[in-house]
């Protein structure tokens, strides 16, 4: 026993300091299946409430879809509960291969390798393919797991201003002396809902002999005419060298991620990516449910079309209600409040109105850019969206921010 | 020294600020702890200083604290120039 009182106190002090800064994350419990309407216990111990969920990554409403659940059952019956092995020892079933092939087809790439999560894919991919002679050039707002992966890799790295293709071009010019250049971006940025201008980016990559890696976690299944992703939206299907994405959001929402792209790069991940080599294989029930998800999204665009309609409707209505929204066309619709306390207070009041949304502030988003991030789903009905907008109107009225622009809100509440 | 401060300021404005940012950068404006520059993006500033002044800044010294203001960055560069 070396967990002495002094040791305990030091850790407790750190927690106290997190609380003191107002950054402590409270537990919230969902006491039902994941869906547009859920039962929530929050704060811990409070009576359960039925609320509308506007903060899940359940973009296509497939997390509790009966056909997906049935496919998971089938996988459980036919291939068992768990693999008890990493992929390359005895953790690869025929259905793992099927799922990898289906993802390759869906994403329009050459090959795919599954990882336990997309965080693992992002953590492992860079180190597996690049070395000290290479450079990674990343958008400044990429997901934390890409940042971690880049830091684990011996390649040099550099960054460019968020979605600024001129700045990227300057960096590409500056790094012409390296062996490989790899541009890294999110397809859809999770905090802002911005769509990366992939068409221009691919053109620059081709001009300056660079590869492109896109994290499609918030795009796979619904961005683009048939939901293939940001590359479909911008007409560059087949021209992306590496896509990383997750099965844990639109595509069923359970867990699992992948690296999909050029044959040699994927094969190198099979040889060298540490989360693939040293972490357990995805469970059979998840694999078979994910194959069913791909059947559903490849078979019909009904869900992504519904999501597109919901997104447009919410964005129009919320602007008409006099709130500030970060403009865009993705189902990530941040209602901008700039001030952290305001974002926090308003999200609590929204919960009291039966709408479950969460406030985000520094360090998750830049200081002075606090917001409530609303995420639309294909399973929201028009009535649910109307309820959400009505709640925003009521709460916005209470705080006197309806009709105020950015400066107006900052003048009233500060950054 | 005054000259170095101007050079570094100009680089920071160019490299990290957008045209519509109305931030006035002084010698003591915190740039990292305030979130203007995140620690991930700090790397290009380090590379710029090393190239411009012909020095090598070890990771142990190129910390977010040392890079937080133009003043502290200059102090770090001066220290290495003096070596
Ligand atoms: C952009 C992005 N990349 C990667 C991940 C990690 O995915 P996973 O949950 O599969 O680990 C997430 C979120 O979870 C994300 O938002």
Can you give a write-up of this model?
- The complex is a heterodimer of chains A (415) and B (83).
- With 415 residues, chain A is α/β, with parallel strands linked by helices.
- Chain A folds into 2 domains: 26-55 and 302-413, Aspartate Aminotransferase, domain 1; 66-299, Aspartate Aminotransferase, domain 2 (3-Layer(aba) Sandwich), CATH 3.40.640.10.
- In chain A, 43% of the residues lie in helices and 16% in strands.
- Chain A contains 16 helices and 14 strands.
- In chain A, strands 4-10-9-8-7-5-6 form a 7-stranded mixed sheet, with helices on both faces. Chain A has a 4-stranded mixed sheet with strand order 1-2-3-12. Chain A has a 3-stranded antiparallel sheet with strand order 11-14-13.
- In chain A, helix 5 runs parallel beside helix 6 (144-151), helix 7 packs parallel to helix 8 (198-207) and helix 13 (302-320) runs parallel beside helix 15.
- The longest helix of chain A is centred in the C-terminal third of the chain and has 19 residues, at 302-320.
- Chain A is globular and about 55 Å long.
- Chain B has 83 residues and is mostly helical.
- The two termini of chain B are 16 Å apart.
- Chain B has helices spanning 2-16, 42-53, 70-81.
- The site of pyridoxal-5'-phosphate has 14 residues of chain A, from helix 5.
Instruction: Tell me the name of the CATH class of chain B.
Output: Mainly Alpha
CATH fold category name of chain B: Non-ribosomal Peptide Synthetase Peptidyl Carrier Protein, Chain A
Whole-number count of domains of chain B: 1
Distance between the termini of chain B: 16 Å
**How many β-strand stretches of chain B?**
0
Percent strand of chain A equals 15-25%
This entry's quaternary arrangement is: heterodimer
Q: Kindly identify the CATH topology of the largest domain in chain A.
A: Aspartate Aminotransferase, domain 2
Q: What does the overall shape of chain B look like?
A: globular
Low-confidence stretches of chain B: none
């Amino acid at each position: 026993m070396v967990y002495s009182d002094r040791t305990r106190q030091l850790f407790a002090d750190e927690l106290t300091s997190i609380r003191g800064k107002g950054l402590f994350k409270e537990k919230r419990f969902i006491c039902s299946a994941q869906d547009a309407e859920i039962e929530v216990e929050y704060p811990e111990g409070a009576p359960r409430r039925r609320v509308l969920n506007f903060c899940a990554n359940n973009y296509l409403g497939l997390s509790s879809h009966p056909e997906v659940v049935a496919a998971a059952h089938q996988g459980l019956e036919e291939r068992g509960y768990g693999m008890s092995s990493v992929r390359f020892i005895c953790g690869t079933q025929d259905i793992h291969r099927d799922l990898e092939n289906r993802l390759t087809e869906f994403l329009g790439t050459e090959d795919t390798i599954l990882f336990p999560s997309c965080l693992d894919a992002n953590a492992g991919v860079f180190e597996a393919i690049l070395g000290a002679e290479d450079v990674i050039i990343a958008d400044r707002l990429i997901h934390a797991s890409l940042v971690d992966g880049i830091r684990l890799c011996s390649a040099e790295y550099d960054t460019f201003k968020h979605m600024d293709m001129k700045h990227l071009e300057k960096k590409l010019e500056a790094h012409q002396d390296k062996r490989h250049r790899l541009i890294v971006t999110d397809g859809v940025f999770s905090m802002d809902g911005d769509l990366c201008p992939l068409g221009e980016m691919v053109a620059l990559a081709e001009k300056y002999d660079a590869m492109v890696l896109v994290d499609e976690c918030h795009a796979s299944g619904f961005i683009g005419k048939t939901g293939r992703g940001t590359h479909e939206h911008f007409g560059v299907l087949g021209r992306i060298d590496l896509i990383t994405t997750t099965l844990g959001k639109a595509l069923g929402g359970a867990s699992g991620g992948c690296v999909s792209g050029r044959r040699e790069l994927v094969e190198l991940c099979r040889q060298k990516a540490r989360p693939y080599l040293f972490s357990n294989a995805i469970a059979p029930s998840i694999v078979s449910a994910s194959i069913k998800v791909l059947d559903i999204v490849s078979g019909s665009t009904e869900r992504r079309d519904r999501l597109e309609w919901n997104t447009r409707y919410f964005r129009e209505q919320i602007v008409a209600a006099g709130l500030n929204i970060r403009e865009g066309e993705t189902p990530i619709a941040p209602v901008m409040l700039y001030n952290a306390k305001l974002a926090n207070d308003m999200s609590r009041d929204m919960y009291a109105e039966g709408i479950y949304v969460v406030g985000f502030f520094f360090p998750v988003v830049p200081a002075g850019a606090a917001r409530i991030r609303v995420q639309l789903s294909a399973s929201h009905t028009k009535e649910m969206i109307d309820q959400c907008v009505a709640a925003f109107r009521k709460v916005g009225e209470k705080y006197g921010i309806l009709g105020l622009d950015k400066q107006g809100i900052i003048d009233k509440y500060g950054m | 020294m005054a000259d170095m401060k101007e050079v570094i300021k100009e680089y920071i404005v160019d490299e990290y600020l957008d045209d519509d940012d109305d931030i006035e950068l002084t010698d003591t404006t915190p740039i990292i702890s305030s979130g203007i520059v995140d620690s991930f993006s700090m790397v290009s500033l380090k590379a710029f200083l090393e190239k411009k002044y012909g020095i090598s800044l070890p990771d142990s010294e190129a910390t977010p604290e040392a890079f937080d203001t133009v003043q502290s960055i200059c102090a770090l560069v001066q220290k290495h120039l003096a070596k």
